[in-house]
Amino acid sequence: MEPVKHTYEEIVLQNTELQIQLEEANDTIDAIRNGQVDALIVKGDDGHQLYTLKTADQTYRVFIEKMNEGAVTLNRDCVILYSNSRFAAMMNLPLEKVIGFKFETFVPELSANKFKELIDTGWNEDCKGEILLTNKDFQLTPCLMSCTTLDLDEGTALSLILTDLTHQKEAEWELKVKNDQLLEAQNAAEKLNYELEDTVRERTKDLLISREHFKLLSNNIPQMSWTNLPGGEVDFYNQQWFNYTGRRYGETAGWGWQQIVHPDDLALTMDKYMTALKTGNIFEVENRYRRWDGTYRWHLNRAVPLKDEKNEIIFWVGTATDIEDQKKEMERKDEFIGIASHELKTPLTSLKGYLQLITSYKKEEIPPVVKQYIEKASVAINKLQRLINDLLDVSKIQAGRLEYAIGEVDLSNLIKNSIENANHIYPQYEFDNQAQPGLRVEGNAERLEQVLMNFINNAVKYSQVNKQIILKTETQDHTVRVSVTDFGIGLSDAQREKIFERFYRVEDKKFMASGLGMGLYISTEIINNHNGKIGVESELGKGATFYFELPRVL
Ligand code: ADP
């Protein structure tokens, strides 16, 4: 087709016409928006069409124009006949790029089906649903689309109200995230709660079982037993306690047990009890408890503390063992020892006298071999005498009758005498005198020499290979220490704690030497009676240093 040629004048005319049309169109749009017109003409595919709002009034249109929602009306072909400025703003376009365009232009592929479905329904009945809209920059906006048909003079149009759900969705999303977090926290808390409940249930069960175990155990031992708090109050007694005392729980709980202790034993019991509570060391004391019938029986009390991981005492577990029968046996034995040693002493003294009588004969009258026998008999008699003396001492200690006179004792003399004596009895040993001269103490020289001789006898007995023995004095402030050191078998830590007890002997067959385990017990009593201290320093296999310390006379 030949292109139509226009003259310059024609083109100017055409341009002027078009400008007028444009202005008219703009005026129309403004007029509609401001409610000045009730009808509008739209140029569709099949020419111009005139649309008139049937019940339109100005207020209504202004209202729509000012609405926060997008409002559009569509014809059957989904062409936008009317749009308020809010919808155009939502699409980020001027109104003229919205009106007259197909609504699908603003519907992304994602929402195409949903949109179609809503529109189809909307022509028949009111409906609403969520769809996405896309603007010219391809930004998606979630919207709630409400459809209602509108009766216009020219036919029915479909009115759409579009509510921007962006903020709502964001808020919903935030709410959902928060909700999820809350749910998660709730689940975690619930789980923790269940775990906690399980643990508590387990612990309670454990506690119940262990308490039942403890009760079963404590009610089925022959001893009386109790538990007390760190402060000293008793909070549990076993059945034996109630059987023995004949009291009810409330009567002896807390500190009530003091009424059961024999009045003569109460001070010592309290002293040991309070010391144990203060130091956390094992409590041990012998005392008499009053039975339900009013009689008293001796008991050995022991309590051990139960400590937590921080070494703090939780409570004490104590037992009281009836030792009345053992005590009686012991007393009978002590009595027997006392009588027996006394009885033995008399014939021994006469034996000694007769031997002396025999030795007083002239040398030539006694055959040499008989003289030898006499010497051997003398040694045996001396040994027997020492043994009987020790036995007598033990029974005197038991009866509380170990008595002697007190005077001033020169220690260097004491040591010198003991060494002379020892040299005589043990000529094959070397005694090293390291005593300072002029040291004096208050005491009984005979008894102190007895202690020193006991140390020396032991040093010899338990040091068969190395024959060197050192006797030494050392001073410190107001005390003096006298010690006897040997380089023999020595003692272990456990043995060291026990050797000062009555009749205790180290039970090691390898090193067994004759003796009854009385020497150190008597020595301890003597030194205690002198207000002194007795002790030993030793290492197994390396020898031992036995010592006593006494206040110095200055
Ligand atoms: P014993 O008559 O048995 O020697 P003691 O009371 O004098 O009685 O001593 C008690 C125990 O102490 C001994 O049986 C011995 O085991 C141990 N003992 C004493 N002195 C020493 C020492 N110097 N070296 C090693 N062990 C010793």
Describe what this molecule looks like in 3D.
With 554 residues, this protein is an alpha+beta fold. It folds into 4 domains: 8-164, PAS domain (Beta-Lactamase), CATH 3.30.450; 219-322, Beta-Lactamase (2-Layer Sandwich), CATH 3.30.450.20; 328-399, Helix Hairpins, CATH 1.10.287.130; 407-551, Heat Shock Protein 90 (2-Layer Sandwich), CATH 3.30.565. The chain is 45% helix and 25% strand. Strands 13, 14, 15, 16, 17, 18 and 19 form a 7-stranded mixed β-sheet that branches. Strands 4-3-7-6-5 form a 5-stranded antiparallel β-sheet. A 5-stranded antiparallel β-sheet has the order 9-8-12-11-10, with helices on both faces. Strand 8 and strand 9 form a beta hairpin. The termini are far apart. The mean pLDDT is 87. Bound molecules: adenosine-5'-diphosphate (ADP). The site of adenosine-5'-diphosphate has 21 residues, from helix 12 and helix 14. Adenosine-5'-diphosphate (ADP) is lined by residues 454, 458-459, 462, 486, 488-491, 499, 504-506, 515-521, 544.
